[in-house]
TrEMBL record, chain A:
It is a multi-pass membrane protein. Keywords: Endoplasmic reticulum, Membrane, Transmembrane, Transmembrane helix. The chain crosses the membrane at residues 27-46, 53-73, 79-99. The keyword Transmembrane helix applies. Component of the signal peptidase complex (SPC) which catalyzes the cleavage of N-terminal signal sequences from nascent proteins as they are translocated into the lumen of the endoplasmic reticulum. Dispensable for SPC enzymatic activity. It comes from Orbilia brochopaga. One of its GO terms (cellular component) is signal peptidase complex. It is found in: Endoplasmic reticulum membrane. One of its GO terms (biological process) is signal peptide processing. It holds the Pfam family SPC12. Belongs to the SPCS1 family. This is Signal peptidase complex subunit 1.
TrEMBL record, chain B:
Belongs to the SPCS3 family. One of its GO terms (biological process) is signal peptide processing. One of its GO terms (cellular component) is signal peptidase complex. It is a single-pass type II membrane protein. The chain crosses the membrane at residues 12-33. This is Signal peptidase subunit 3.
C-alpha cells in the first residue's frame, strides 16, 4: 500500500533533476515564443485572425504537454550524492571531498 | 521548475506575457490599413408631425421629423483581419438659437465581417428613428445629414470616423404636413 502511495506521490510531484529543469525552461521559452510568432505571421498573411488563435492555442497545449509531466528526458542527470565516508572510518568527524581537482577536508 | 506544479505555473506565467505581446502586435497592425470608406446620401423627403411626447399620459406636444433618403456606401476599406464588425450611422445636424449644436441619429446599422457584401445601396428608405428637438419645435431650421462609422476590432482600440463626402446639402425642416423643398 505504501509503495503505491509513494508512486502516486512521485507522479503528482513530478520531480526532475537540475539539467532537466534548465531544459524544461528553455523548451517553454522557445515553443511559446515561436508558436506566437508563427501564429502572427500565418494569421497576417492569410488575413484570418482565427488561424492566429488556433495556432497560438495549439502551441500552448504543446508546451504544457511537453514541459509539465516529468518525462524521462528531464531525469537523465540525477544528482550524485557523496558516499558517507566518515561514519565508515570510525566517526573521526572529518572527511574529504575532491573539489576542482583539489582535496578538501570537510566536517561530517 | 522542480515539480510539475511549478512548471505549470512557469508555463502559464510566460503564456500571459507572450499573449500580451501578440495581442499588442495584432492591435498595431490595424493602423497599417488606410480607412477611407465612401458614402453618398440623398435626402428625398422630410416630414414633420406633431405628436404627444411622453406617451399616453403626457400632454406635451413635440415636433417629430422623419426623413426618407437614398444611400450608396462602400465600407470595404474598413475590413482587415482584425475587424470584427463595424457600426455605421447617419445623423442629422442642425443649429438653433437656444441650443446651437444639435446632432441626432436617424439610421444605423451593424455589418459584421462575415457579411457577404460591404457595400450598401438603398433607394428611398425611411429613417429608423424619428427625431425631435429639445425645444420641441423645428421651426424651419436648416439641417444636414452625414454618415459616420465605428470599427470594432478583435483586438485593440475602437476606431471612429466619418465617410468622406457623405455630408448632404442643407435642407429645411418643413412645417407640419408640408413637403420639404429638397
Amino acid at each position: 500500500m505504501e509503495a503505491i502511495q509513494d508512486k502516486f506521490q512521485a507522479v503528482v510531484d513530478g520531480f526532475i533533476d537540475f539539467k532537466g529543469q534548465k531544459l524544461a525552461d528553455q523548451i517553454t521559452t522557445y515553443t511559446l515564443s515561436i508558436a506566437a510568432f508563427l501564429a502572427f505571421i500565418v494569421g497576417f498573411v492569410a488575413q484570418d485572425i482565427r488561424l492566429t488563435l488556433y495556432i497560438g492555442l495549439a502551441g500552448t497545449a504543446l508546451t504544457f504537454l511537453a514541459v509539465v509531466p516529468p518525462w524521462p528526458i528531464y531525469n537523465q542527470n540525477p544528482v550524485q550524492f557523496l558516499a558517507v565516508a566518515s561514519s565508515a572510518a570510525g566517526g573521526s568527524g572529518v572527511g574529504s571531498v575532491v573539489v576542482g581537482g583539489q582535496e578538501v577536508k570537510v566536517k561530517t | 521548475m522542480h515539480s510539475s506544479l511549478v512548471r505549470l505555473q512557469q508555463v502559464f506565467g510566460l503564456l500571459t506575457t507572450v499573449s500580451f505581446v501578440l495581442a499588442t502586435a495584432i492591435a498595431l497592425t490595424s493602423y497599417m490599413y488606410p480607412m477611407n470608406p465612401t458614402a453618398s446620401i440623398k435626402v428625398n423627403d422630410v416630414a414633420v408631425v406633431k405628436r404627444r411626447s411622453g406617451g399616453y399620459y403626457s400632454t406635451r406636444v413635440n415636433e417629430y421629423a422623419n426623413i426618407k433618403f437614398d444611400l450608396d456606401a462602400d465600407f470595404e476599406s474598413l475590413y482587415n483581419w482584425n475587424t470584427k464588425q463595424i457600426f455605421v450611422w447617419i445623423s442629422a445636424s442642425y443649429g438653433g438659437d437656444r441650443y446651437p449644436t444639435n446632432e441626432a441619429v436617424i439610421w444605423d446599422r451593424i455589418i459584421d465581417s462575415a457579411a457577404p457584401s460591404k457595400k450598401l445601396s438603398y433607394k428611398n428608405i425611411k429613417a429608423k428613428y424619428n427625431i425631435h428637438d429639445i425645444t420641441g419645435d423645428y421651426s424651419h431650421r436648416n439641417a444636414t445629414l452625414k454618415l459616420s462609422w465605428n470599427v470594432q476590432p478583435h483586438v485593440g482600440v475602437l476606431m471612429w470616423g466619418s465617410a468622406a463626402g457623405s455630408e448632404t446639402k442643407g435642407f429645411i425642416f418643413p412645417s407640419e404636413k408640408a413637403k420639404a423643398a429638397v
